[in-house]
Amino acid sequence: MCGYHLAELNIGTARAPADSPDMAGFMAGIVPVNALADAAPGFVWRLQDGDGPGATALRPCGPDVMVNMSVWESLESLREFVYRNGPHLDFMRRRRDWFHPMATPYLVLWWVPAGHIPGLDEALARLDLLRRDGPGPRAFTFRDPYPAPVPAARAAR
Amino acid sequence: MTDISVIAVLDDPVRRRLYDYVCAQGRGVSRTEAAQAAGVGRTLAAFHLDRLAEAGLVEVAFSRPAGRTGPGAGRPAKLYRRATAEHQVSVPPRDYRTAAELLADVVDVTGAEPQLQRSARARGAAAGHAARERGGLPDSGLLLGALSAQGYQPYRDGADVRLRNCPFHLLAARHPPLICGMNLALLEGLLAGTAVPGLRARLDPRPGECCVVLESSKNNSD
To answer: Could you tell me if B105 and B202 lie in one domain?
Structure first.
């Protein structure tokens, strides 16, 4: 199998510490929403820290910045879950209760060979690329998507 | 075909009735069914439906009636349903779409969603209240009328009310959490303004429809 999967990273600067009452709604909501993701069509993998719910204990971008990373079979499967799943959409609708707005891109998408699990350093490099150069085939967004690379064997034919 | 030519195709009372009927069904509609609904003969309905299809206002699919397959099942029926493309004409030229996209970008970046939701709730409440003040209708008619007036194309689904059309479709596709959140607040306000009891607005997107369902508060699970 030489296909490609879609990787996704998004980050958010929390308005308050994870264990504060202000973040209680987010910390409680993330568990059932993650369970919905795991069961969604096209879901492949998501980052977990083995400590807090999801990856909420990981802070590679600073003490207030939470990260979320996952891999999906296609752009459509991820889009369907993110924007067309009622509980997830409702969770996103309330994001300003918990996270500061960001003037720079906070979500990046890129293609990975099927079976490859991206690391956080790879993901953050893609976010940097998006922030520096704007959307392109190596780092893009839902609004400006790029197609998966054509496998070399097929391209040569 | 330019937008203005497409819209001009609707300038015929029979054609308009057929179009409205097809849109309201949310599924493929046969010539016979549309003819009956519009109160015209099948041949005339077929003529107008095909004009609508040529203009791209409805899409055509072929389907056999349920349960009839294989040889001898007869010719597949021509079914018509609303096309997804949208058309807009303004005379003189106005461009509210660009303004809306720019404003949405700014709300996204500045995090002004809570203020947007407050404004939307107030706007919905005012529309709902005005519908209640006009009076003359039972609760259900009042609510469906108010929703129709806002372009939602409501329909009953058991005890719930679902909305066939998203009045903010292009914007919602660009900024889903922002616009769907605004829309939810608008509909929460509308419900409160009409003072129709027993329903609550909840995000529950379905393909091709509005992201909100007005759900009977008697059958909710949480």
So the answer is: yes
Task: Name beta bridge partners: B123.
Answer: none
**Same domain (yes/no): B100, B141:** yes
Give the closest-approach CA distance of A104 to chain B in angstroms.
8
* B205/A86 CB distance under 8 A: yes
Tell whether B89 is covered by a domain: no
Asked if residue B222 is part of any domain, the answer here is no
Range of the domain at B72: 3-82
Domain A4-156, CATH: 3.30.70.100
Can you tell me the ipTM of this complex?
A: 0.86
A22 to chain B, any CB pair closer than 8 A? The answer is no
Domain edge (last residue) among B82, B106, B123: B82
**How many domains, in total, are found in chain B?**
2
In DSSP terms, which residues pair with B154 in a beta bridge?
A: B163
The answer to whether A152 faces chain B, any CB pair under 8 Å, is no
Amino acid at site A51: D
The four Cα atoms B159, B165, B171, B177 give a dihedral, to 10 degrees, of 20
pTM, two decimal places: 0.88
Decide: residue A63, CB within 10 A, 0-12 exposed, 13-18 middle, 19+ buried.
exposed
What tens digit of pLDDT does each residue of A111-123 get? 999 999 999 999 9
Q: If you ran DSSP here, which 8-state letter would residue A23 be given?
A: G
Instruction: Give tens-digit pLDDT for B40-98.
Output: 999 999 999 999 999 999 999 988 766 666 666 677 889 999 998 999 899 999 999 99
Tokens of B45: 């309905």
